[in-house]
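> call design_seq(struct)
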């Protein structure tokens, strides 16, 4: 487990993500999701690469249903990039590091 990746839930989503001074990449995932496990090491790498410029957070959809419903999470993994409390980019499904880096760089 990467110490640069925050694990957040319904209770602290607003303060950790929407009120953040830095952009936040949020990974919606579940324990039973194979593609989620595939991209998890990439998400950890991104947390290292963008440390100081962006935060990375994970939300377990099984334990945090209210947040998953609020952001219309129907398919996982789903990554949302927030900046100033607004969604700037969305990626659904397992993709490579290059595609995620491109998405992040456009927003930062």
């Amino acid at each position: 487990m990467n110490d640069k990746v925050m694990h957040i839930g319904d209770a602290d989503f607003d303060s950790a993500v929407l009120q953040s001074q830095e952009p936040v990449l949020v990974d919606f995932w579940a324990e039973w999701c194979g593609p989620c496990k595939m991209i998890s090491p990439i998400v950890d790498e991104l947390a290292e690469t963008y440390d100081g410029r962006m935060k990375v957070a994970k939300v377990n959809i099984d334990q945090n249903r209210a947040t998953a419903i609020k952001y219309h999470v129907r398919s996982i993994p789903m990554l949302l990039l927030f900046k100033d409390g607004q969604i700037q980019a969305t990626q659904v499904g397992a993709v490579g590091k290059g595609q995620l880096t491109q998405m992040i760089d456009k927003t930062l």
